[in-house]
């Protein structure tokens, strides 16, 4: 959270170009790392993932990608000298940003994909209902709770078996 505020808030508002370079550095590190471990080559070999090309660019050079990832990681610690970095926490800025991106992006991508699937289902249902014999209507909002029932529920929750209500 601190890295997100320090980079996306403070650095973005005070040194926008520096912030864009930082984001580019983080992105380059993760691309090099994924290339080095072969994940991008695996994705490129999946059917219909990318348009047809003779040889995906990720099939070779894993060793050089690993060296690039290591160099980008080590160079990342130079960001502690950024003018917007808090002196007490500057050592952690790069590490927190890189680890945070690695931990946050995969579940956020899954959540975003599942939200899109639910939206698609909702749109399909609305389109099917709209094409039906009766016009589609938006669902009515929830009715406000019945205050008398709510008061009775609250009163009944306060009674105990030893202390029944007196009539």
Task: Give an overview in words.
The chain is mostly helical and 167 residues long. The protein is 65% helix and 0% strand. The chain contains 6 helices and no strands. Helix 1 crosses helix 2 and helix 1 packs across helix 5. It is extended and about 75 Å long. The termini are far apart. The mean pLDDT is 76.
| Uncertain runs | none
**By helix and strand content, what is the structural category?**
mainly alpha
Mean pLDDT equals 76
DSSP helix count?
6
- Percent helix range: 55-70%
N to C succession of SSEs: HHHHHH
Strand content: under 5%
Radius of gyration: 28 Å
Shape: extended
Number of strands: 0
Could you describe the largest sheet, including whether it forms a barrel?
none
Distance N to C terminus: 58 Å
The gist of it:
The protein has 167 residues and is mainly α.
Question: What key phrases describe this protein's structure?
Answer:
167 residues; mainly alpha; 65% helix; extended
What's the SSE blueprint?
Layout: H1 2-14, H2 16-36, H3 39-45, H4 62-76, H5 90-130, H6 147-158
Helix pairs in contact: 1-2, 1-5, 2-4
């Amino acid at each position: 959270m601190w890295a997100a505020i320090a980079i996306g808030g403070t650095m973005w508002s005070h040194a926008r170009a520096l912030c864009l370079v930082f984001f580019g550095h983080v992105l380059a590190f993760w691309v090099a790392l994924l290339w080095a471990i072969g994940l991008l080559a695996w994705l490129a070999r999946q059917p219909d993932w990318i348009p047809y090309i003779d040889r995906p660019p990720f099939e070779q050079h894993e060793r050089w990608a690993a060296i690039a990832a290591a160099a980008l990681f080590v160079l990342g610690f130079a960001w502690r000298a950024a003018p917007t970095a808090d002196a007490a926490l500057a050592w952690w800025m790069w590490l927190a940003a890189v680890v945070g991106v690695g931990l946050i992006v995969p579940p956020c991508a899954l959540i975003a994909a599942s939200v899109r699937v639910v939206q698609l289902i909702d749109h399909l249902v609305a389109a099917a209902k709209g094409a039906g014999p009766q016009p589609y209507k938006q669902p009515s909002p929830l009715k406000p709770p019945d205050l008398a029932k709510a008061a009775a529920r609250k009163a009944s929750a306060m009674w105990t078996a030893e202390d029944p209500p007196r009539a």
